[in-house]
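2024-03-11 09:14:02 INFO receiving multi-entity request
2024-03-11 09:14:02 INFO entity count = two
2024-03-11 09:14:03 INFO echoing inputs for audit
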Amino acid sequence: MGRILLQSPGPHLGSPEQTRQIMWLVVLSLLPASLAGVYFFGFGALVVLATSVAAAVVTEYLWIKYVRGKEVRADGSAVVTGLLLGLTLPPGISPLYAFIGAVVAIILGKQVYGGLGSNPFNPALVGRTFLLISFPVVMTTWQAPWDATTTATPLSLLATGGPLPSWGQLFWGNVGGSLGETSVLALALGGLYLIYKGYIDWRIPTGVLGSAALFSLALGIPVTTTLFSGGLVLGAFFMATDYVTSPVTPAGRWLFAIGIGLITMVIRQFGGYPEGVSFAILLMNAAVPLLEKLTWPKAMGAVQ
Amino acid sequence: MLQGLFLILVSSALVNNFVLSRFLGICPFLGVSQKVETAVSMGWATTLVMTVSAVVTWTLERYFLLPLGLEFLRYVVYILVIASMVQTVETVLAKTSPALHRSLGIFLPLITTNCAVLGLALLVSLKGYNIVEAAVFAVGAGLGFTLALSLLAGIRERLEWADIPAAFKGAPIVLITAGLLSMAFLGFTGLVAQ
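2024-03-11 09:21:47 INFO inference complete, emitting structure
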């Protein structure tokens, strides 16, 4: 009778992979894109990124400690939010806007809902969209690589019929655009690494990029232009795959991803904004609870 | 012709969504969005009322109010039509689906005072649509209303379990969510030239 039956609630298998580690790996995988941004757009880009990350971290710290009166656990999610927001901003923007965006992203995007895990919308995109509709001119003034002159993004060239950059330029990233969205090579490196590690689901980037590619084939737009310009790659790998704001069911993920690809292309082709990735992801974020309801698997043996 | 109708549909459902960009019908938007099932039923009921009342008010406007020079009676007549429509829907629902009737509660008769329905009828006469366009416009408005209501209801079901700060519990967080939703719908701006 010396044996004791130990009972404890599940899960019974522990994993050394904690939220903090996953978040740091995401930061690591965003490093190539951040470096590419700084390489192409110079010191100003570095200041924007640093401001955005610092503002996000400090806001989160102050809110949890003084507004909620709770112990602060550094899970690294504020760093990811700040970095992602910074990467979606125009490189020449004043750091003041990065600061405003980061505060909005952390407070309105995440903390009013109770913090990480409860937010319905991707916080970084809440911050970016807030900036875009509040300061439309500042948010659409683009800087040419290695140059302080302003330029047009490939997507606005596509809309106005200007000369398009070669797909090689788009691939390496020396074109106008948001700080971290221009280099497809750097983004793909980070994104594929996350898929390889199993931290993000391949279904979501595949669905987003695949549906956008099919849509542009149907409309007769060059597929490389569609995929390699604008924020599509950044959004597909790093924003649509956010654990909190994407569906948990595989079928739901497919629908979610295809929805993002299609809405992005509809906004790009027919809408008033030249780029629609952030709106598309926010709209599909809102649909996540309904998509999960729709695709929830039946329990075995359940009778309907 | 068909393309024009399609654009009217997209415009009234998404671009100029009655709830999220015209800010009409906020009362049921906040009041009946606790559960997805109820929200969807409310959406269908409102769509039905909208479509029928748009067609009826269009006919009355064209063949009764305008020829007799009684445009100043527009509001009274429209409200009369809408109220009797809602009464009909309520009677039918109470007989056929008492459970749904109970869960919609006071918000079902309140469709009468839903400014989205009256707003729709007034917009139809303002825009000078013909009867088919008016019906399509109404269906789009109803679908957009249903979409906005079910999206918000889906999110609100999730918020039941969230550790929301005390100051933001209840109405504040719903209004913030509605605001963010409306911000996302701005992406459709310019999809249809107005």
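2024-03-11 09:21:48 INFO post-check: Chain B touches chain A at residues 36, 150-151, 154-155, 157-159, 161-165, 168, 172-173, 176-177, 180-181, 183-191 (CB under 8 Å).
2024-03-11 09:21:48 INFO post-check: The two ends of chain B are 16 Å apart (CA to CA).
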